[in-house]
Design goal:
about 375 residues, alpha/beta, Four Helix Bundle (Hemerythrin (Met), subunit A), Rossmann fold, 2 domains, seven-stranded mixed sheet, four-stranded mixed sheet, 11 helices, 18 strands
């Protein structure tokens, strides 16, 4: 992704590995400060995922793979028996940090599956290589999603996004923002309505930051304003990302996605979900089986921001000791989804049949 620092534009990945160290853009500091955060062990990487120092389905999937690579390198001097026990324990710690997004569990499982038999050194090498391969696949999938999805975007389109499914949520490009990036590069005049996405405001903080870096026209709107602009005919398409997609096409995504899908249907607006194969969970039959993460109620009761003196402050926006509920995701039934934008093309209804068929194809 393009990042302007002190007037100079540079390219960054959201996260990358340097030996035993994993480096990442610290998303808790954005948009007010650009900072690279480093983790030196799988425990530190797990905490970075849990605390949302990095977030987004693809990014935490790659971080989970890198975390297992860190664990394998850390346990490289262990006996075979000790290695098997320790690597499984490390996997469990990483996976439980964020239970809804399936990319994390899938990536960790893939790394464990290639470990195989043999001496520890060989197992470590296979795990590390697989983690690096997952990162490169994430990058290529996002690029292909942008290529396919941009074909749906017409010159002059006005689009709505929810949460952040951009480069910060993956290695680069993103999912929902990838088609928008590609359309912009193709010279299409586009405008993006950016849902703020309470309570963590990933839209107003992260999506707006990404679009500003790329020079894409946009405006942040409060979550409750989407219906207003839809009814006025000012939104032509909705594109969102996903954290887990069931075999029947039901989608778990950031809280508030469901209501945007219902509004889009009511107003005759196409509603697309952009996601790579890693986000589909074919062992999950419907959205009713998806575990929804409940996060700290402090996220609802307070908000972080920068004051006029550029000091970062946490302020409470409710009376103290107010009860709150904080489901981090909701499930959008497949019937509200116009199609899925994936690295193997656009998937249309009937979803259970077409998802299984399309995802079985190999990339060429």
């Amino acid at each position: 992704m393009k990042v302007r620092i002190d007037g100079v534009t540079r390219d960054f990945r959201t996260l990358w590995r340097e030996g035993k160290t994993v480096k990442m853009i610290n998303q808790r500091k954005l948009p007010h400060k650009f900072e690279i955060y480093s983790t030196n062990s799988y425990i530190e990487t797990a905490e970075a995922i849990r605390s949302m120092t990095l977030r987004g389905a693809g990014a935490i999937g790659v971080a989970g793979a890198y975390g297992i690579a860190q664990a394998a390198l850390e346990f490289a001097e262990s006996s075979v028996e000790e290695f098997e026990v320790k690597i499984r324990d490390a996997a469990a710690i990483l996976v439980k940090t964020r239970p809804t997004a399936v990319n994390l569990a899938n990536a960790v499982s893939r790394c464990l599956s290639v470990a195989g038999k043999g001496i520890v050194a060989e197992r470590v090498k296979r795990i590390v290589n697989e983690a690096d391969a997952i990162a490169e696949e994430d990058l290529e999938s996002s690029r292909r999603i942008g290529d396919y999805g941009s074909q749906l975007i017409q010159d002059g389109s006005r689009l709505l996004t929810h949460c952040n499914a951009g480069a910060l949520a993956f290695i680069d490009y993103g999912t929902a923002l990838s088609p928008i990036r590609f359309a912009h590069v193709q010279g299409k005049e586009i405008f993006v309505f950016v849902d703020e996405t309470r309570p963590r405001c990933q839209g107003s903080k992260l999506t707006s930051w990404e679009l500003k870096q790329e020079g894409i026209q946009h405006a942040v709107i409060v979550d409750n304003a989407a219906g207003y602009f839809m009814r006025k005919g000012e939104i032509d398409m909705v594109i969102v990302g996903a954290d887990r997609i069931a075999a029947n096409g039901d989608v778990a995504n950031k809280i508030g996605t469901y209501e945007k899908a219902v509004l889009a249907r009511e107003n005759g607006i196409p509603f697309y979900v952009a996601a790579p194969r890693m986000t589909f969970d074919l062992e999950c039959s419907t959205g009713d089986e998806i575990v929804i993460e409940e996060r700290d109620t402090e996220e609802v009761l307070s908000i972080w921001g920068e004051d006029e003196n550029q000091a970062i402050l946490k302020v409470y926006i409710t009376p103290r000791d107010t009860p709150a509920l904080n489901p981090s995701f909701d499930v959008t039934p497949a019937k509200y989804i116009t199609g899925f934008i994936t690295e193997v093309g656009i998937i249309k209804s009937p979803y259970r049949e077409n998802i299984a068929k399309k995802l079985s194809r190999r990339l060429v």
